[in-house]
Amino acid sequence: MPAPQYTRRVAKHPSPVCSGRHGSCRFFEVTIMSNAKMIAVFGATGAQGGGLARAILDDPDGGFAVRAVTRHVDSDKAQALTEMGAQVVAADLDDEASVRRALDGAYGAYFVTFFWEHFSPAKEKDEARNMAAAAKAAGLRHAIWSTLEDTRLWVPLEDARMPTLMEHYKVPHFDAKGDSNRIFTELGVPTTFLLTSFYWDNLIHFGMGPRREADGRLVFTLPMDDKKLPGIAADDIGRCAYGIFKQGEKYIGQTVGIAGEHLTGEQMAAALADAFGEAVDYRAIPPEVYRGLGFPGAEDLGNMFQFKCDFEADFCGARDPAVARALNPALKSFRKWLEINKDRIPRGGEPSPDQ
């Protein structure tokens, strides 16, 4: 028997300062299942959270509803989610009280941080602590925490194989997330720990795509030697998270690793060549060379790639594409992702349409 439904008016910009008594708000009708489980999606206008929000909204009979949590409720992306049927609310991860309000009445939440906005592992851990404390106070029945390995469990600070960064970390944007897992556990938050993979979207937005050399050749550079790199379409991370929520309590207390494929640099270059219709050479560089490239985060990323190389079996083994495909049957391969996104990837001096 299908779930009962009702129709309600939703403000175009629902936020703490916009409600029905303000003439500036415009309304439209959205049909929502009256018994739908509300998922508060943090980072809903970003890569991971956006994928989850769209997955829920694309499945109106799935039994879930979206509360998109963002600092910027008036952004174009937030407005687009509103028009798709999401409830959009404001919260700041630095403010535990605002996070707690955003969780009011929710069944579950998707928690993610964005290290590259501030480059501070201490801030990232504070944000995770605020989310975990708010989740406990709100009585959430299921939280998904987007996390990564604490690489210091493999490479202690005194290990000279890779430099220690910021005095306390080997791969700061990994270690802070991995170290924060225990906060959710210690507070007794019913949590699934989601291990993500390299976004193929980094080729578009992070400057990691092929570069055109002076002789006209396209060269794809990674410090991965001949090792395999687990990768995934960013949108598929959220869709896998939706698959976890749909399984109820099955994955609570578990670590789930996801990837679309495990590919070498040579395999990625070959797929890029086929997509572009011209040769793309793979150039493997040592991690110490990558660390010295000088852009913000180069040392962190250089250590990250070295970790993925040195511990390929562990890193790939924790991310089974078959698990991801079971959670998200529409999981994209790298070639399928390229088919959709090839024209958005900058090639050397050619600007991305998104920039």
UniProtKB/TrEMBL annotation:
Name the UniProt record assigns to this protein: Uncharacterized protein YbjT (DUF2867 family)
A matching Pfam family: NmrA
Keyword Transcription carried by entry: no
Domain NmrA-like: start-end pairs: 37-314
Coiled-coil residue spans: none
Family according to the record: Belongs to the NmrA-type oxidoreductase family.
CDD domains: NmrA_like_SDR_a
Superkingdom in the source lineage: Bacteria
Keywords carried by this UniProt record: NADP
